[in-house]
Amino acid sequence: MALTVMTIGAAAVMSLQKTSVTGNFDARETDLAASIARTWVDRLHRDAMNWTMPNNTFPTVSNFTNAALLSSPAYGKWALPNFEMGQSNPETMSYAFDMLGRDIPSGQATGSPNPVVFCVNYRLQWLVQPNLAPAAGGTVEPGLIRVDLRVLWPRDIISRPTGDWCSSVATQANPEQGTQPMYHSIYLTTTIRQGGTGQ
Prior knowledge:
This protein is an alpha+beta fold. The chain has one domain. It is 28% helix and 18% strand. The protein has three helices and four strands.
């Protein structure tokens, strides 16, 4: 009888241990995803510092294209922040991240096993567009953009999707939903203001 009770207790403890390990693993992934989202918000704010005109000194000139991350995607649609620093700079800014939350250069985002664990998408919307050449006596209104960021990662970390799965889900409205959802997700929304306007 004592052996039976001990066996039942041991089975319960092992089940509890498995649940605890799974919960800890999920919490770690969620924390990494949140950190990646914050990293990309910082990158977008830094990118906006290259966008300084139009302003009251140069009201008819726009250098919005200097902000590569903000000027490249089609607005209102989910897209990949498909941009990397130049070869002269060792820093990589990628949409793909490994299991430790490190950027993976786009040329290394496939393989077997697939190194990509986390994938970043973003969607941009104008809140305030800069008004070029305002009426006499008027002032230039600095641009303001709403940014929706999402970080996706596979539910089954053991059998991750093959190939560049980031590209395949980048334009989907809700890839984490469905009858058999494949992905976890974290969403973050912020605003990006035109930088360095001198106003």
